[in-house]
């Protein structure tokens, strides 16, 4: 479905963007892929990396805070993936207005820009577990962004256009996450690893699974869905043992803005959540939303269902973690 289509990705030079572009170029024959981001150096590096695809890739310098510029980039675009964000929790806490401008005003500009242009058929915005019951500003801004994209479907009228959201948790090995943190101290020869809380759990998702979920959303979305992958969980203490076998563990206390478990679907969301073979979809709870848009093949989850890394059915053992870490 991406063959001969023009795709624009905001934040296309980031970790997700790089992997998405690689995946799309390998598996489809798009007409054009437009990378929309601010830093020319990151675009230069990416252009070098994908130099064999010069005729397909376009590097557009632009800020999601700048609606006019974004609208200019939208000319002839079929699909928009919105990945640009400020996403470091401490940075967002210290620079709250900047986080609001990028994550909330930016989302508004994407929606308005798309509504003001005729060509776009689908918009998929990336979300995070931190948007669920948020306890920090990053999560708060992403919750607002999710709500904006879901509500945007009320404004499409008769147009063949949908807005949907894809939500996942920390990508294994991503910058600032626990794997590179442990790796760095293990490489320095320690025998003890710090654990903020021994009860802590996380979901395991890799970039490929994130990209595949976005492609699925592009293919299936009718508008208003929040797509969530079914993925296994692991204990942070097991991860430490996998990275440094027989190491001592020291509990150092939970950090500001950190949660014990990642949560993707709350009990309140469960009222409109459907389970599919490999994913869940949360549907909107708005009165204007049309139930005929529920995608076939799913079944409603039980009342009070909650999808959280701490109460998952599928877990990764220490041995399985060791095997997965080889590819990180
Ligand atoms: N990484 C994870 O573990 C994870 C987990 C769950 C959800 N997510 C979500 O996935 C999305 C992508 O994350 P990522 O890991 O790829 O992030 P990333 O590696 O930090 O990349 C962010 C991208 O956004 C661009 N950007 C930042 N501010 C911008 C602005 N104002 N206007 C235009 N572009 C801007 C950056 O390029 P410039 O600086 O050059 O503009 C960069 O290309 C985000 O929405 C994030 O919330 C990520």
UniProtKB/TrEMBL annotation:
**A Pfam family name for this chain?**
Polysacc_synt_2
Q: Which SUPFAM superfamilies match?
A: NAD(P)-binding Rossmann-fold domains
What name goes with this protein?
A: UDP-N-acetylglucosamine 4,6-dehydratase (Inverting)
Q: Which family does it belong to?
A: Belongs to the polysaccharide synthase family.
Q: Where is the Polysaccharide biosynthesis protein CapD-like domain?
A: 7-282
Q: Which InterPro entries match?
A: NAD(P)-bd_dom_sf, Polysac_CapD-like, Polysaccharide_Synthase-Rel, PseB
Query: From which source organism is this entry?
Result: Lachnotalea glycerini
Q: Which domain of life is it from?
A: Bacteria
